[in-house]
Each structure stands twice: as structure tokens, then as C-alpha cells.
Amino acid sequence: MTEKELIQGCIREDKACQKALFLQYAGKMLTVCRRYARHKGEAEDMLQDAFIKVFDKLEQFNHNGSFEGWIRRIVVTTALKNIQRGRFKNEQIGVEHLPEKSTEPVVFSQLNEEALLKIINELPYGYRMVFNLYAIEGFSHKEIAKELDIEASTSRSQLVKARNLLKIKVAELQKASA
Amino acid sequence: MKQDKQHIDQQFEILNEYASPTSDDLWDKLDAARDKKDRRKGILWWKWGMGAFLLALLIPAGIYWSYYTNASEAKLMETDKIDKPSQLSTIPENSTETKSATAALNVEGEPIKDNIYKEKDTNKKTSLTRSIEKSVLHKSSTLATSTISGLSKNDLNQENKINTSEVDIFSAKTSIHALPGQSVNLQSKDAITTPVTGVSDIEIKETIDNKKQKLQGAVPNTDQSKEKTEVPKKLPIASVADLPTALPEINTELEMLKGRGPRGCYSFAGGRIKYDYYLDAFISPEYVLRTLEAKDLEHEDYRKSREASERTLYGVSSGVRLSFVTRRGLALRTGLVYNRTIEKMEIDEDDSVREVIVIDNGTDTTRTIQSGRRIKITYNRYHSLDIPLLLGYEVDARNFVFNMNAGIYFNIAAKQKGEILSETNEPMFINSNNPQRIQAFSKDLGMSVYGSFGFGCKMKNGFQLLIEPNLRYQLKPITLEVYPLKQQYIHMGLLVGLRKQF
Fold it and tell me: Chain B neighbours among A 38-57 (CB < 8 Å)?
């Protein structure tokens, strides 16, 4: 079944097509959610909310761009909205006291995806959001500022701090594994 | 430094292609959540639809009610405020008009009509009499304008001719105040310079003034008339009681105009409400929508198994309704309504086993074990008895009476009979009188919201054929709190019945 047929099936409310589409993208999209969520349970809730929207809005997909990209955008937006409901913002307190100095380059090749996800999850809220959106999703600082309702300059500074913190955490992880 | 940054970012970009392992029940949870959302959407749609429907019924009724209440109150206020000493003139007791007036007043209402009948042709009489009967306000206006006296019979004739050419209520009002007898008698016997003098309607006032001017020219003793106008304008309260006992209706109306209703009658905006009474007997076949909702995700499978095994077939309501309808078309209805909803439960068991025992010759028995597919069909019946309390509005249009109603059905009893699947997918009785039944359904169904719009086709002998499409939404589930599912109904019916006016 082609992607287009799958989408048409989902629009017709064909459960089999909907399940197939979900299973095709659930893993990747769960990874996206896990980068924003604090734990897997929360990530699964985000994924559920996101796919409800995906099925609701499927008729609006115009087949011009990448379908995966379209779904990813919905997932990211849903994740951000869920977070911005104010449930986890308290984590941001105190982040300004984290070290800002540059650290030595580190070797990431030894770390697998699960380890990288764990490191991202350990970042404070603001750092995690900005790093995810900028480094992985490819948002500009202007877009991040708009999405998170912050200044673009704040986004830049948070990104620098996030990178520095990631380097420290990677170094610690490698030291521990050695 | 820049390379370092890019290096970090690139390392994390591999996450874009990484698919996290998903738990097996993720799809089931999503599917259940979507179903729940769809059902909520459906329920929400009905709630909003029902709300809009009720508003559509109640708002016009409220506006109508408010308009007429305010209009009546405004008329009374104007009556109190207007001070017209020039209209308070009376004519001498020994005048010819006085004599005829005394005759008219002895029996108040009916002779007034008789007087009018003498002045008009048959058609005009009929329309005027209807107008008189319809509004108590007209009667108050009769009193208010009754002090204008001295109109000659010719004047009266002329005025009646003018007035009866109109068809609105003011024509009736003007006609009545033109009656000579009533006014003269009141003034002459009790020297009442009634506080309710004056008519709010400017048109009528002008007509009266014109007549008075004519009259003043015709009556020789103008000084006497002038003196009479200087009599105190306010009627002392005690003087109401002093009115002749032969005039009970005037007493009543004076009391009403002074702000208190007649004893034993409901007073509304300065008048008595007159009702028509109707008795409806009806039957209403219904299309029934059922919603079944799991209270938590754990029972979603149970909900699905019940949904798969049951189907709502139809509903039917029947009952009697007593309607009190005011002359303004506002209606209050109550009665007793019985409803029955029929559902079909069908269970298809592929691996069913049964034992067949055949008795041969009265002594020998043969036992056979049979296995195969078993289809079990049960028709479930949900009975309820309700007391409706409805507010309606009716519009009379020749051979039809259009009506709209909205209100509440109060459940007084409920009973169920049949079988449904239990949580273990075993069919279990729901019979209300069976102690082994599944504890699922409540005997108190609470309230339902009812709305309808229809018409009655007038027939002979005060009968009407009623056709009334209706909608009834049960506000709370018929299931018990302890039962894991919520079962709720929306009834869409077509009421057909007979109405008899009493």
C-alpha cells in the first residue's frame, strides 16, 4: 500500500489503515516526544495527543511536501503546547548559574541514541527546548522565540549554555563508562 | 569553536532517524482515546443543539411575555399619571342620558353589550364583543373613560361607527367608553371622580376631547359642569367599599387598578388571566440514539463488546397531557408520559455446547451432546414513567394551532427487562425484579429536557389532531454509579394525538 493509499484509507476512517500509519511513524515520533518530555509515560501521552490531531487533520495534507515532516511538525507543536501548559516550567529555576565556559571537544560516537536521549532529558527545560528546536528540528532563533514566547537573544544564549552543558554531561558519561 | 558546535549538533541529529521502541498497547490506547473524543463530540453536539433549540423556543416566549407585561403595566402607570379635570364633567341626574345609563348599569357587563348591539350591525357587534371579552384592560379603560359623560346618542352612534371600523383592541376600548349609561350613573350616585380617569391612548383622548367640546356646546348648564370638574380627583380608598353591591364587577376592577387582584383570582399585570383547558392523549414513535461510554480505559473493551452485541431498535411514548393556555397563547402543560425503548441483544457463540435429552417411550432417555454455533437474541425493554412540565406558546391560525414547547420531564419510575453482557462477556439479566440481575441500571432516571414544535389541526366538537415532532435528551445516564459504563439516550419522536378543549 502506498503512502497516498494509506492516507486515503485513514481519511475514510479505515481502522486498519490508521493502525498501519500509526505503527509506521510511532517509533520515530515517540523519539521526538521523548526529547521534549521528562519521561517515557509523558512522551507517550504527547504522542497520543499528536496522532489524534494527525488523524483529525489528515484531510488538510496536500501531498506537496514530506508526509513524515508534516507529522513531525504536528508532533513538535503538540509537545510544545503540552509543555507550555505550565506543568514543568519550574525546572527552569536556577539555570542561569550553570557554567558558561567552553569545554574540550568530546567524542560522541561511543554514545548510542538512548544515551543521547538521556542526556537531553537531563537538560533544564529552557535549554532542552531551545537545543531540540534549533539543533535537531532546524528552527531558527526567530522561530524558536515565537514558539516559546521568548526573545531571540534569549534563545541564542540558552543554546550556548545547552551545548556547554551537553559537553559536560557527555564527558561525565564517558568518564563513568570508562 | 564553530566546528565544535556543529559537531555537537550533528551528533544529536541522528536522533531524527531513531525510532524508539513502542509499547504494544499504544495503538489501542490511541484508538480508545479517539473513540471517546468522537463520542464526546457527538454528545456535545447534541447538548449544544438541544440548548439552541430550547433557547429558540424560550426566547420568543420570554419576549412575548415581557412585552405584554410591560405594556399592561405601562398602561396602568399612564392611567394613574394622566390628570384630566376637563374630562371629569358629569351631567345632571335628571337628564335623559342618566336614565338610560341607570338601566345599563343594573347588570353591568351584558347590558353594555346589548346597548352596543343596538348601535351596530351584526358583524361589528361580534368583533367588538370578542374584543371586550379578550382583555381585562379594556374593562379598566371602561372605568377610566366612563366619567366622560353627556355624549348624545348621535355622538355615540358616530363614535361607534368610527371605532368599529378599526379592528385592534383600541377600537373596543373607545366603543365602550362611549357608553353613556355607565359613566353617568357612577358620577351621579357616588360622586366618584375616579382616580383612574384618562385613557393612555392619545387617539382616544383626542376623540373624547372632540366629543366633549361638542357636548359642552350642546349642554346648556356649562357652569355646573365646570363646578363638577373641581371635585377632588382622587378616590378615597374607603369609597371603593361604599360602591353599590349591585356593581361587584366594578368593585373588582377598581381593586385591581389599585394594585390588588380580586379575591381568589390570580392577578397578572393588572388583569386576570383567563385559561382555556385542553386534554391531550397521544402516542409518539421515536428514533432513539444511545450513547455508551466507558468510565475509564480499563472498561473500554467491555464497552465495545456491549456495543457489538446490542442495537437500539426504537422507542415509543404515550400519555396524557393537560394544557392550560392563556388567551395570549402562553401554555403550561403537565401530565403523565410512559416511554418504552426496545433494544436487541444478539450473541453469536461459535464454540457453544448443548446437551439434548430425549425421553423415549416414557422411560428411556437418550442424551446427546451437540456442539456448534449458537445465536442468542434477546429484546431488552427499558420502561420509564415521567411527569412533564412544559412551557409553550401557541398561535391560532384559522384551522391550525401552531405550538412550540420546552420543558422538563421528571422521571418517577423506571424498569428494565432483558439481558446484557457482563464484564466477563456472559449474558446476564437486567430485570428489575430479579435479585440475580446485574447491578447496572438505576430506577431513578432523573430529568430529561424536552422540546417540540408542531401544530394542531382543528376538527369538530373542540377536537384537534396534534402533530408534534419532538426531542428529548436524558440529562443523566440511566446506569448506576457503580457500573463501569454510562448509558444515555436521546429520543427523537413524532407525537400524534388528539386534543380536546373543555
Answer: 43-44, 47-48, 51-52, 55
Q: Which residues of A touch B22 (CB under 8 A)?
A: 23, 26-27, 30
The amino acid at B164: T
The answer to whether the Cβ–Cβ distance between B8 and A167 falls below 8 Å is yes
Q: Please give the pLDDT value at position A86.
A: 52
Which chain A residue has its CA at the smallest distance from B8's CA? A163
pLDDT in tens, A3-42: 888 888 888 888 888 889 998 999 999 999 998 888 888 8
Portion 17-56 of B in contact with A at CB < 8 A:
17-23, 26-27, 29-31, 33-34, 37
Query: Which among A31, A47, A51 has CB closest to B15?
Result: A31
pLDDT(A135) > 50: yes
Q: Does B5 touch chain A (CB under 8 A)?
A: yes
CATH (one of 1.10.10.10, 1.20.1260.10, 3.30.360.10, 1.20.1290.10) for A98-177: 1.10.10.10
Q: What is the SS3 assignment for A108?
A: coil
B121 in A contact zone (CB under 8 Å)? no
Go through B123-140 and write b for each residue having 16 or more CB atoms within 10 A of its CB, e for each that does not: ebbeebeebbeebbbbbb
Cβ atoms A46, A37 nearer than 8 A: yes
Which segments of chain B have a pLDDT < 50?
82-201, 218-246, 258-270
Q: Which of B491, B485, B469 is nearest to B403 (CA)?
A: B469
The ipTM, to two decimals, is 0.76
Residue where the block lists cell 443543539: B49
The class that CATH gives domain B31-64+274-501 is: mainly beta
| In chain B, where the domains are located | 31-64+274-501, 82-272
Domain boundaries, chain A: 3-84, 98-177
Q: Can you tell me which residue has the cell 433549540?
A: B53
If you count them, how many residues does chain B have?
Answer: 502
Q: Which residues contact B492 (CB under 8 A, 6 or more apart)?
A: B286, B287, B288, B289, B469, B470, B471
The answer to whether B487 and B478 have CB atoms below 8 angstroms apart is yes
Q: Cβ contacts (< 8 Å) between A156 and chain B: which residues? A: none
At B96, list the grid cell.
335623559
Angle CA(A178)–CA(B2)–CA(B4) in degrees, nearest 5? 5
- Determine the Cα–Cα distance for residues B12 and B6; give it in Å rounded to an integer: 10
Label the pairing between strands B400-417 and B419-421. unpaired
- The C-alpha atoms of residue A152 and residue A129 are separated, in whole angstroms, by 13
Q: How far is CA B84 from the centre of its chain?
A: 41
- How far apart CA A3 and CA A5 sit, in angstroms, is 5
- Global confidence as pTM: 0.40
Phi, psi of B328 (to 5 degrees): -85, -5
Task: Give which of B74, B238, B227, B235 is closest to B146, Cα–Cα.
Answer: B235
Which among A15, A35, A102 is the nearest to B15, CB-wise? A35
CATH of domain A3-84: 1.10.1740.10
- Asked whether B169 and B201 are in contact (CB, 8 A), the reply is no
CB B433 within 8 A of CB B364: no
User: What residues have CB less than 8 Å from B41, skipping those under 6 apart?
Assistant: none
